[in-house]
Amino acid sequence: MFPRLGLFSSSLKVRNFSQISQISIMSKLSELRFDNLQLRSLPVEEKEGVHSRQVPNACFSLVNPTPVDNPKLVCAADSALRLLGVERNSVSDQELADVFSGNSILPGSKPAGHCYCGHQFGYFSGQLGDGAAISLGEVIGKDDQRWEIQLKGAGLTPFSRTADGRKVLRSSIREFLCSEAMHHLGIPTTRAGTCVTSDTRVLRDQFYDGRSRHELASVVLRISPTFLRFGSFEIFKSSDEYTGRAGPSEGNVELLQKLTDFTIKTYFPKISQDLTAEERRLAFYCEVVESTARLVAEWQCVGFCHGVLNTDNMSILGVTIDYGPFGFMDAFDPNFICNASDEEGRYTYRKQPEMCRWNLEKLSEALAPVLPQDKSLPLLLSRYDEVYSSHYLEKMRKKLGLLCIDGRDSEDSDLIETLFDTMQATGSDFTNTFVVLESLSPCDEGSQKSCVEKLVEQCITVAESREACKPKFGDGQMAQLLQLVQLQPNLFSDPRALGPLKREMDKAQQYKALESVSEESRRAENVEHWTKWIDTFMKRLQVEVEGQSGSGLDEVQRARRDVMAKTNPRVVLRNYIAQQAIEKAEKGDYAEVWRVLKLLEDPFNVSDQSPAELQPSAQPEAAAASASASAACAAEGEAQPWEDLLKRPPTWAAGLKVS
Fold it and tell me: With bands split at pLDDT 50, 70 and 90, how would you rate the model's confidence at 413?
């Protein structure tokens, strides 16, 4: 049923020269070195089949991908594939599509789904597992590093519950592009090697509003040293006091010990095996705490929101994992919610550090049978905030070009806080604000005025503000809701119900208040806000150049701007950029996806590149096949986005929703 690729496959007959080349190409992927250590070391369920079920006392369940019709490559990331020892010029697009859709199984691959649990939006959900992802195994790649490769969207598994195990093109493109975008931003992440679509169609109700449509089943090749997560250690949990649910391996302390010790030995080799078991586990927990703290600090410094920070979406390695309804902020808003389904506002930008710490508490609970919480919790309390604050301050200083830092922690923290207050008050674009600040020179008063003018151009307009806070309900409906709250307060005692209502009330008030605000008065306010902050910033910058003159002053300025330029991206994967690529890809034009990938692979230097330079260096078959469609769009006058990417997003971008 699932062909295994091999150079001497008896079913493969050579009919022409092109097919001889295909045999050679096929052998390249067949030579991937699989070494499935996880499956050899941890228990695998004895049952087979894809029917939904509980999987007790096992970490994995063997399951083959479900083939799709006519798989085709949408895009591939050369540097990610290179981790596995795969060179793009040695493999055809169709071969990548066949293998990384799950239609063909490589020699040595042993497909399996991983069993894990999770706290979802604050409540324990019991067994979850890989409901739409199938691991192909572990590959020994470049420099003998071990990489687990996984197909997301490859079909049913025992953990699929009522779902179909598939992902669609729009979500697959978003995950593929963001995985690579985060890597090139220098933020720890899983990688994405390929995005493959097909002619297989699945029914989806994107916003759960009854408007379902058929979409193309698609698959992303994900790459990571391991996909073990906090939820992997929650399969042993006893019955939860709130939900009544338990893990499928409830109380199996022996297996918890085995999983924990395997994880430490395999993925944390710097932890000495000479330590006692408890000391090793405490050192492991400390590593997870610190890497998670650094990770979320990185997110905050680029305006990234994950969207679904459940324990089952938190990697044990402290890398970003599971890209769903994520979002990079446009106009700064500390209460930014990127996930349209997060009506409670649990995972706002502001709350991410708190939520990651909460998840670490749940990991502490999960490990309690093998690592007492009187050891792990004090470590969490002492290390998480300290590591987060230190890393955040270090990164933010680089974004502002602050190099003279001795004894200035409090001053710089206040400066950063007032910067974000100013950005919030003016609705300034998160990414572009820091790019503009690079133009400010502490010894040039003219640059101060110019900088303020540029910053004001990055601020949200009154019209955009009104659109952003436009309430869902009219005045009459809102009045009825308020009356209902007064008459039946018990209906809104749950914060999950009260929170969305309060946000709608706040939006209605803001919307009403903006009726009397003109664009001219808003601009004047923004100038005032930014002038005040820039004055404070200029005083801080005097410290950077104190005692310098002539060439020494120039050197300081170059050093500052070099640090800022390497820390402040010119482009991130904004929702509208992804959406433009998705809409074209859904029409069969994948060239836009390739161009966006090329852009994201060098996010700190894009302003120096011309539109022509943003084309793939060696245009792949998939992109070449759709190039004519792109050319046709351009001929019809459809604007290519590259010249506008450094401007504020188009007005329509504010209306995009992701769920």
Answer: very high
Overall average pLDDT of the 325-354 stretch: 95
Closest CA to 346 of 128, 208, 499: 499
Per-residue pLDDT tens over the stretch 60-82: 999 999 999 999 999 999 999 99
Average pLDDT, the chain: 88
The sign of the torsion formed by the CA atoms of 433, 439, 443, 449 equals: negative
Residue 597 structure tokens: 């990938």
Distance, in Å, from the CA atom of 244 to the CA atom of 636, rounded to the nearest integer, reads 59
Name residue 428's beta-bridge partners. Answer: 459
* Structure tokens belonging to residue 501: 């209502």
Other C-beta atoms within 10 Å of 69: how many? 12
Q: Do 218 and 198 touch, CB atoms closer than 8 A?
A: yes
How far apart (Å, rounded) are the C-alpha atoms in residues 361 and 351?
15
Closest among 372, 182, 188 to 277, alpha carbons compared: 372
Locate all alpha helices (DSSP H) within 128-252, ordered by sequence: 169-184
For the chain, report the end-to-end CA distance as a whole number of angstroms. 35
**Residues 361 and 381: beta-carbon distance below 8 Å:** no
Supply the pLDDT for residue 222: 98
Phi and psi at residue 243, to the nearest 5° = -100, -15
**Residue 224 three-state SS:** strand
Percent of the chain at pLDDT exceeding 90: 72
Give residue 94's identity as a one-letter amino acid code.
Answer: Q
Query: Could you read off the pLDDT of 310-331 as tens digits, one per residue?
Result: 999 999 999 999 999 999 999 9
The per-residue b/e assignment along 501-539, b for 16 or more CB within 10 angstroms, e otherwise, is bebbbebbeebeebeeeeeeebbeebbebbeebbeebbe
Q: CB within 8 A of 632, min separation 6: which ones?
A: none
Residues found in the chain: 659
8 Å CB contact between 536 and 418: yes
DSSP-assigned states of every residue in 353-367: HHHHHHHHHHHHHHH
CA dihedral of residues 177, 178, 184, 187 (deg, nearest 10): -160
Helix and strand totals (H; E) in the chain:
20, 14
Q: Which residues are catalytic?
A: 312
The residues, ordered by sequence, that sit 6+ positions from 549 with a Cβ below 8 Å of its Cβ are none
The pLDDT of 490-496, averaged and rounded, is: 64
- Cβ atoms of 157 and 63 within 8 Å: the answer is yes
Q: Which of 142, 39, 40, 32 is nearest to 83 (CA)?
A: 142
pLDDT tens digits for 81-123?
999 999 998 999 999 999 999 999 999 999 999 999 999 999 9
What is the CB neighbour count within 10 angstroms for residue 467?
16
Cα dihedral 524/529/535/536 (nearest 10): 180
Question: Distance of CA 196 to CAs 245, 298, 478, 585, 645, Å?
Answer: 36, 29, 45, 11, 26
d(C-alpha 266, C-alpha 262), whole Å: 6
